[in-house]
Design goal:
Number of strands: 5
CATH superfamily: Gcn5-related N-acetyltransferase (GNAT)
Structural class: alpha+beta
Strand order of the largest sheet: 1-2-3-4-5
CATH topology: Aminopeptidase
Helix content: 25-40%
Strand content: 15-25%
Distance between the termini: 38 Å
Number of helices: 4
CATH architecture: 3-Layer(aba) Sandwich
Shape: globular
Length: 148
């Protein structure tokens, strides 16, 4: 298994994975929209995406991070927004390798940290993230406003 940053040649294959990720979260399938969205992120340098490849060079998982900033730390902060592994590869350490790539990006960019959110019902993620060194913030409320 290999973990690496994506390149433009990966977009078509990654868009299928990304579409599966969206379906997992209850969205309608939209391969063309997924491809367009990922192309824009890559072309505009708006996110960093790492992929996991199997021995046949097939993409089996990805993590997407968005740069944001911490005013109090006066440094970059990475939002780990998307993490997805194909069903048959779950439980094989792929998520761990992708999170390690995200941590390495954080270190290389001298960012102050990584943040993420996950549903309380995500039992696997809620066990994984503390094992990977993430702390659960119980001191702050999370609010959102949707304009959809």
């Amino acid at each position: 298994m290999k973990i690496r940053k994506i390149n433009i040649d990966d977009i078509r294959q990654l868009s299928k994975l990304f579409d599966n990720y969206r379906i997992f979260y209850g969205k309608e399938s939209d391969i063309q929209g997924s491809e367009k969205f990922l192309n824009e992120r890559l072309e505009n340098k708006e996110s960093e995406i790492f992929v996991a490849e199997n021995e046949k060079d097939e993409l089996i998982g990805f993590v997407q991070l968005y740069p944001i900033f911490s005013s109090t730390s006066m440094k970059r902060l990475w939002l780990l927004n998307d993490l997805f592994i194909e069903d048959i590869y779950r439980g094989k350490g792929v998520s761990v390798l992708l999170i390690e790539a995200a941590k390495k990006l954080c270190t290389e960019t001298k960012a102050c940290g990584l943040i993420l959110e996950t549903a309380k019902s995500n039992e696997i993620g809620n066990k994984l993230y503390p094992k990977m060194g993430f702390s659960l913030d119980i001191e702050h409320n999370y609010y959102s406003w949707d304009n959809i």
